[in-house]
Amino acid sequence: MAHRQYKPWVSTIALSMMLTACASTLSRTSMPSPATGLTGELVGSHTYYPAHLLMAGVTGRAVVAYSISPSGIPKDVDVIHSDNPAFAAEAVKFVRDWHFDVPSDWSKEGGPEHRFRLQLIFLINGRPSPTPYPNVTTIPVEGTAD
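Given the sequence above, the corresponding structure tokens read:
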């Protein structure tokens, strides 16, 4: 069985997103990577938990796949799975709201062809948590039921 090698920027991008996305409302945030210098930035401010699902107490998950262009913009964002179409739409918005400072050799090293997978888990305090899919970078989006 062949052993796959991962580029340092793969884990850096996932880590940047995980460290930044632990709230339902996120604002402009920059996360530098000490390992590679790659920076991911979530631009704008947006509430990623669909309001009608939060009010109804609905939790769930959505998995998306995407690539990152040579200019650092997420592209080809596809929904792989979602428990609700509204969760899918918010997961796509979340990925599209990122901008990455990619290394100068991003294209040469095959960066734009790499497909990243990301899972957003939509949580509400006091409600059972959806079971995350294994082997997918997971980011919690936490809502508070009033």
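Residues 8-20 form the longest helix (13 residues). Try to locate this feature in the token string yourself.
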